[in-house]
Amino acid sequence: MEPDDLPLPNAKWLRAFRRRVLSWYEKHARVLPWRGIVDPYRVWVSEIMLQQTTTAAVEGYYHRFLERFPDIQSLATASDSEVLRYWEGLGYYRRATQLRRAAQVIVSKHGGTFPNTFKEVLSLPGIGRYTAGAICSIAYHQRTPILEANTIRLHARLLAYPDDPAKAAGYKLLWQMAECVLPTASSAGQFNQALMDLGSMVCTSKSPNCANCPVVTLCRSAQKGLQHLIPALKTEKNIEKRTEVALVIKKGEKYLMMRYPHGVRWAGLWDFPRHELNNDVARYDFEEYCDNIKRLTGYHVVLHDQIAEFRHVVTRYKITLKVFVAKTTGRKIFSEYQTKWVSRQDLSELALNTTGRKIVEGII
Ligand code: SF4
């Protein structure tokens, strides 16, 4: 069935849906630190933190971040490194650097006041249609729709949309649905939050609780018994295995650290010298690895013992990280990355990626 064949709900359906969702939300709304807040700066910070991250993971970061950067001005004048330090462990670090860049744009273009039109909000670095919709509806009571993981699933099920909603046609239809269900501007923000809560608490991905859902009689998937088949599964990403090696190199009381430049993974963060270890059929190519470390850090290194191993998944990569003790030989030559020798105490001040921090806390 093509999206155009799926009718959007009529006025009677919409009235019943809005009434039931809002009355369910009054009793069941999640208690979250950013709920009830209408300051656009705070709404913006929470929405950026929540992108691809769970509410449980964000809660602690949200308070700490706002204590250090309580307003646009303080964020705009902070250094990239400091903002990254407060973001450390939350992942998707580009969000933090773009947040700071957007704060600078707000200061230079809008006199330090958060813009209040959808178009201006959308033009800020790091803000897409969903985030602009959330900020404008929650902070400014504008009738702007949102569509994120929870509401994509909810709307797809309400409509019994049979195809992959990530495809262009499905995405277009679900945005239309998100817009048409919204009530008046004054309650649009509350309604958007109610839809996200309904999606995350009742219409969950693995076990939709239709028996206790306030909109069960309005849901086409529940009527047809299709709730477990919708949304259609995305084609599985090809998972690639990678092996990386990080080096703990100590000289006196200091450790060699390198900083990722702009345009690469973990831009702006510090790390122990690290590179992928190519596996040439049956054995690892440590010679090529050492050449790469020399190119990045300017140091020729000699590897000693392996002292730890971590496994983690980043986007489509399943990474095994081997940690070795190593030594440098000779003088430093030109390096592609910034490097410095850092004492144990100063390591706690640097913004590190997650595994870099694990090495500090678990090994050093
Ligand atoms: Fe989701 Fe079931 Fe409610 Fe439909 S009835 S919206 S499938 S929980």
Brief overview:
The protein has 364 residues and is α+β, with helices and mostly antiparallel strands.
Commentary on this structure:
With 364 residues, this protein is an alpha+beta fold. The chain is 45% helix and 17% strand. Strand 7 and strand 8 form a beta hairpin. Helix 2 crosses helix 3 (55-68) and helix 8 crosses helix 11 (185-201). The structure holds iron/sulfur cluster. The site of iron/sulfur cluster has 15 residues, from helix 9 and helix 12.
Keywords:
364 residues, globular, binds iron/sulfur cluster, 2 domains, two-stranded antiparallel ribbon, Nucleoside Triphosphate Pyrophosphohydrolase, Endonuclease III, domain 1
How is this fold's topology laid out?
Elements: H1 11-28, H2 40-50, H3 55-68, H4 72-76, H5 80-87, H6 94-110, H7 118-122, H8 129-140, H9 149-159, H10 168-181, H11 185-201, H12 220-224, E1 240-251, E2 254-259, E3 270-271, E4 274-276, E5 279-280, E6 283-284, H13 286-297, E7 300-314, E8 317-329, E9 338-343, H14 344-347, H15 354-362
Helix pairs in contact: 1-11, 2-3, 2-8, 8-11, 9-10, 9-11
Bound molecules: iron/sulfur cluster.
- What string gives the helices and strands in order? HHHHHHHHHHHHEEEEEEHEEEHH
Task: Based on the coordinates given, report the CATH architecture of the largest domain.
Answer: Orthogonal Bundle
Please give the count of helices: 15
* CATH classification, class level of the largest domain: Mainly Alpha
Annotated CATH homologous superfamily of the largest domain: Hypothetical protein, domain 2
Describe the biggest sheet?
7 strands, mixed
Heteromolecules bound:
iron/sulfur cluster
Helix content: 40-55%
